[in-house]
Design goal:
By secondary structure, this protein is an alpha+beta fold. The chain has 8 helices and 14 strands.
């Protein structure tokens, strides 16, 4: 089965996570979760594509919740999303399994960083080669364009694993985002960050700025979208929003002592579009995104 874009296109609470910084209670550390967050009995595509990895990078998939300079997939249940009756009862519930799995994470700079990188799928050699080598996979990319100089771009890469047709509601919403207008995307694409471990001063500053609230990224920040034969890429200009810029300034220097989970989803507006489900999620653990920047 080809991994198309849809019609085109887990949260028991646990003990506080106390490693390497301020404890963050409840839904948080994901201890005891499965290696992948797919529920038992859920049909999934064969994971034909290997992880995308920059050969000289220090960052790789982690083997445990203590692994540094790594990424993992958190349980989708860690994230509360709009439930089936949200429009009437305003209740959220843990998400079902994510549609895409994380396959890589890396920060890039072109030359001396004088200019930002947009459309990483075509500009970053290893990423472009990985997607071309896996034409039957479908990829979703989130590129955080970090202000400079020097300008850097951090890429979260995901591969689709839930076959088209298993969740027709998600397929329709994803097709709308991939093939729809900028205005449609502004009302759909949602981001939920969750800080699991952080120095106390950083955690306090981020929360004072509202940095852990669900955010409609395409509405709050300048974004660009690029579609290819087997991918959709959303580029987010972090410098276009003062709060996002301030949060980034707090986080980047301290990332090696932080654990952060990031989830992306498509907002449901009508009863037929609910419940929501996580599109993809990634957990970064003590990951030196700036120090490990790859130049090309």
């Amino acid at each position: 089965t080809k991994r198309g874009a849809g019609a085109s296109g887990s949260g028991a609470t646990s003990a506080p996570d106390t490693r390497a910084g301020t404890p963050v209670p409840a839904a948080a550390s994901g201890q005891g979760e499965r290696k992948h967050s797919v529920a038992e009995g859920t049909p999934v595509l064969d994971e034909k594509a290997l992880d995308w990895h920059e050969p000289d990078s220090r960052i790789s998939r982690g083997t445990s919740l203590d692994a540094k300079e790594s990424f993992l997939e958190p349980s989708a249940k860690n994230f509360s999303v709009r439930g089936p009756n949200y429009l009437s009862d305003r209740k959220k519930e843990p998400s079902r399994s994510a549609v895409f799995r994380p396959i890589g994470l890396q920060t890039y700079m072109r030359g001396d960083g004088a200019e930002p990188i947009f459309h990483a799928a075509s500009e970053v050699p290893t990423l472009s080669a990985h997607m071309k080598a896996n034409p039957d996979s479908y990829f979703f990319l989130v590129a955080w364009v970090i202000p400079g100089p020097p300008h850097r771009t951090t890429i979260f890469a995901f591969e689709r694993r839930l076959p088209v047709g298993v969740d027709e509601v998600f397929d329709a919403l994803f097709d709308e985002m991939v093939n729809g207008s900028d205005e449609q995307r502004k009302t759909r694409f949602k981001y939920i960050p969750a800080i699991k471990v952080a120095p106390w001063m950083v955690l306090s500053g981020i929360r004072a700025l509202g940095g852990e609230k669900p955010t409609m990224l395409c509405k709050k920040l300048e974004t660009r979208q690029f579609n290819g034969p087997n991918y959709c890429e959303i580029d987010i200009n972090v410098g276009s929003n003062p709060i996002a810029n301030a949060v980034t300034g707090l986080v980047l220097p301290k990332l090696t002592g932080m654990t952060i989970e990031h989830a992306f989803l498509l907002e449901g507006h009508t009863e037929e579009e609910l419940p929501e489900r996580v599109l993809g999620a990634i957990r970064i653990q003590g990951t030196p995104l700036i120090e490990a920047t790859v130049r090309f």
